[in-house]
Amino acid sequence: MTGGIVFQSDYLQKNPFGFQTGANGYSFGVLYYLDSNTNYNKISQYLKWRGELTYIAADLQHTGKYVDISLQSTTAKQLRAMRGTVSGINLGTQVEYYPFKNDDYNYATFAPYVSLGAMISVQKTKAWSILGNINDVNVTPTKYINAFRNESVILFSATTSIGTRIKINNKNSLFTEAKFQYYFSDWADGLNPNSAIYKENKSNDMLTYINIGYIYSFDN
């Protein structure tokens, strides 16, 4: 499985319905499916459990109206100079629900699904400025002074996705999905301005994936 990712983070104001071109990256990983169809009960025919191990990496940079090149204020220049990186490993599980029964993908070309799950992540974050020491008020806006972490963190998150399997034959399938990961923390990107002061940063970080992958069935 591989794909692109987009952070919704503290690199400028979060917008849950938009995407930041300065917060993009990639992911790749492996999945393992536990097929419950051997029981053939009513519920198991619509569900699949999957375990997931993925690696992510992203470069982060402020984008948007506050850093438009036409703005020459000190704050705008400081924001344009800020940089960040995130990399890490996610380990988690998801339960996929197939409205047309999960065994149908052996016979039908397409098998759409939705899923819910949870993850634990170990992520390394780094923030810096091309102007100099990022903790210097002459280099970085006050909002971000002492509001960053250049270290590894352990994070928990919830995930949901929507996608479809595409059958090649009884042993081989492709899949494509959009997955959303909501962190129970505001440190996923390495920045966490004081939300009591900066209301625009009150929500936690989120991550969007667009994945494609290959599935091989050992049972068929």
Please describe what this structure looks like.
The chain has one helix at 74-81; strands at 2-8, 24-34, 47-60, 82-97, 110-129, 152-167, 172-183, 206-216. With 220 residues, it is mainly beta. It has a single domain, classed as Porin, CATH 2.40.160. A hairpin with a 4-residue loop joins strand 6 and strand 7 (172-183). The longest helix is centred in the middle third of the chain and has 8 residues, at 74-81. It starts with a strand and ends with a strand. The mean pLDDT is 88.
Task: Pick out its properties.
single chain, 220 residues, mainly beta, Porin, 8 strands, 4% helix
Secondary structure layout plus pairing:
Blueprint: E1 2-8, E2 24-34, E3 47-60, H1 74-81, E4 82-97, E5 110-129, E6 152-167, E7 172-183, E8 206-216
Antiparallel strand pairs: 1-2, 1-8, 2-3, 3-4, 4-5, 5-6, 6-7, 7-8
Quick structural overview:
This protein is mainly beta and 220 residues long.
Specify the biggest β-sheet.
8 strands, antiparallel, barrel
**Helix proportion of residues, in percent?**
under 10%
Which stretches are low in confidence, meaning pLDDT under 50 for 5 or more residues running?
none
**Shape, per Cα inertia axes:** elongated
> Can you tell me the CATH class?
Mainly Beta
Summarize the helix and strand pattern as letters: EEEHEEEEE
Q: Could you say what the CATH architecture is?
A: Beta Barrel
Domains (count): 1
Mean pLDDT value: 88
Q: For the largest beta sheet, what order do the strands appear in spatially?
A: 1-2-3-4-5-6-7-8
Percent in strands: over 45%
Q: Tell me the radius of gyration.
A: 20 Å
User: Which fold name is given in CATH as the topology?
Assistant: Porin
**Structural class by SSE content:** mainly beta
The end-to-end distance, rounded to whole angstroms, is: 21 Å
Tally of extended strands?
A: 8
